């Protein structure tokens, strides 16, 4: 290993998250990579979320259903392409593609006769993008860093997403009136092109400073994945470990959907600009809390207490949070729960979940992982959105009743996390 650094950045990173000198450049570039991705997304996310309160429960559920089907199509096409394109083109190609679609969406937006249809199309497409670009990023990360490096480095890398989620909304917050809402699409499109050269540099660092040339997923080589575009789906359903990850994500999605739906209804009394302001402030608090946690706590939590504790911690907190909502069903309590859930996911659960994929091979990482991250996630969105609608409209439950059911699901989520954590630790011990 070469190019070791003992400069101030190296010392700060080592003190905060146990980053070794030879890992500094790769960690900083990875941080910058996800920062740019999330900033590009969060520039336009508040616009999408503010739209939802204008629609009924059924309309929102149908939009989530459409998002699921477009996600299935997207992952299938991705599987088809990745089976025929060399690794060196896969990851940068994804970001170039999404940048192109944003530019096309901008150009076509002024031609649509019905603005409501434009709003809903934007809502669905951005929802597909929001998972796809992150899934590909973490697939790349799990093939870049070793099993020993991931527990120490993934938390600090993930904090880049939180920083991007703070910087991103500030652009429309300060400049939306002068720029125009749809022009934000062009800003996001340009930003998505910036990671392309970063990917090339990280591939070089993988075999030099990181010393991970022997990892199976090597994007610098012209290797090709198996030709079956649907092998990711088959790998997922045949592997108990991957099924466990899928169940874990499904439980997480249920938590997310229940909070989202309840907040959507409580915010309906506000005008759209007020909703965007409230949601923007929530984003600010969530990401500030996530940054502090990721930098100074997550890596120590993972290395000291193990993966089982890491993956079950936030679900256990959610059990208590939902029971509190059941006793005090107020908007402020629900917002506090949302802050704790999202900050905990960004800083603890998400990095821990991505570490699970350091145990799998290249085809699983690049083909089965998107199935889990996108299809299972959006399928969970669809199912739980209709489930929530049924609880509210068919069974006439109030927020208190929904919260009790959510607490039970959170307990199942905690058990799934503990199971995955023990499985991960056992696999490491056997190597």
Q: What would a concise description of this structure say?
A:
Helices cover 81% and strands 0% of the residues. The protein is mainly alpha-helical.
What does this structure look like?
With 431 residues, the chain is mostly helical. It has one domain: MFS general substrate transporter like domains (Growth Hormone, Chain: A), CATH 1.20.1250. Helix content is 81%, strand content 0%. The protein has helices spanning 8-17, 24-42, 45-51, 57-82, 87-109, 115-144, 150-179, 183-191, 195-207, 231-238, 240-266, 272-305, 307-327, 331-355, 362-394, 399-430. α3 packs across α6 (115-144) and α11 (240-266) runs antiparallel to α16 (399-430). Residues 217-222 have low confidence and may be disordered.
Please describe the structure with a list of short key phrases separated by commas or semicolons:
431 residues; mainly alpha; Growth Hormone, Chain: A; 16 helices; globular
- Overall mean pLDDT stands at 83
CATH class: Mainly Alpha
**How many structural domains are formed by the residues?**
1
Percentage of helical residues? over 70%
- The helix count comes to 16
Largest sheet: none
Contiguous runs where pLDDT drops below 50 for at least 5 residues: 217-222
Q: If classified by CATH, what would the architecture be?
A: Up-down Bundle
Annotated CATH homologous superfamily: MFS general substrate transporter like domains
DSSP strand (E) fraction?
A: under 5%
* Number of E-state strands: 0
Rg: 21 Å
Q: Which class best fits the helix and strand makeup? A: mainly alpha
Order of helices and strands: HHHHHHHHHHHHHHHH
Would you tell me which CATH topology applies? Growth Hormone, Chain: A
**End-to-end Cα distance:** 23 Å
């Amino acid at each position: 290993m070469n190019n070791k650094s003992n400069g101030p950045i190296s010392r700060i990173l080592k003190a905060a998250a146990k980053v070794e000198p030879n890992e500094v450049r790769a960690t900083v570039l990875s941080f910058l990579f996800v920062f740019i991705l999330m900033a590009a997304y969060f520039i336009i996310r508040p616009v999408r979320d503010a739209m939802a309160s204008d629609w009924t429960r059924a309309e929102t559920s149908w939009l989530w259903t459409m998002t699921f089907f477009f996600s299935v199509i997207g992952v299938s096409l991705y599987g088809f392409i990745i089976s025929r394109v060399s690794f060196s083109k896969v990851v940068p190609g994804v970001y170039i593609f999404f940048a192109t679609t944003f530019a096309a969406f901008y150009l076509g937006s002024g031609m649509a006769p019905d603005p409501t249809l434009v709003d809903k199309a934007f809502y669905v497409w951005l929802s597909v993008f929001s998972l796809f670009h992150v899934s590909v990023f973490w697939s790349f990360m799990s093939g870049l860093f070793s099993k020993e490096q991931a527990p120490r480095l993934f938390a600090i890398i993930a904090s880049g997403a939180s920083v991007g989620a703070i910087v991103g909304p500030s652009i429309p917050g300060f400049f939306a009136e002068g720029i125009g809402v749809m022009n934000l699409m062009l800003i996001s499109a340009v930003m998505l092109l910036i990671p392309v050269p970063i990917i090339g540099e990280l591939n070089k660092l993988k075999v030099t400073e990181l010393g991970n040339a022997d990892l199976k997923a090597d994007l610098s080589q012209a290797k090709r994945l198996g030709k079956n575009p649907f092998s990711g789906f088959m790998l997922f359903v045949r592997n108990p470990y991957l099924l466990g990850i899928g169940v874990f994500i499904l439980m997480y999605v249920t938590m997310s959907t229940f909070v989202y739906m309840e907040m959507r209804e409580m915010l309906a009394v506000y005008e759209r600009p007020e909703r965007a302001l409230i949601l923007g402030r929530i984003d600010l608090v969530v990401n500030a809390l996530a940054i502090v946690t990721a930098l100074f706590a997550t890596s120590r939590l993972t290395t000291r207490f193990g993966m089982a504790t890491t993956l079950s911690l936030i679900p256990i907190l959610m059990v208590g949070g939902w029971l509190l909502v059941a006793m005090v069903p107020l908007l402020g309590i629900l917002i506090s729960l949302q802050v704790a859930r999202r900050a905990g996911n960004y800083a603890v659960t998400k990095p821990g979940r991505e570490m699970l994929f350091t145990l799998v091979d290249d085809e699983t990482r690049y083909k089965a992982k998107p199935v889990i991250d996108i299809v299972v996630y959006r399928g969970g969105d669809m199912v739980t959105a209709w489930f929530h609608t049924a609880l509210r409209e068919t069974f006439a439950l109030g927020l208190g009743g929904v919260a009790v059911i959510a607490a039970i699901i959170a307990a199942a989520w905690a058990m799934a996390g503990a199971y995955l954590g023990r499985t991960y630790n056992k696999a490491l011990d056997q190597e």
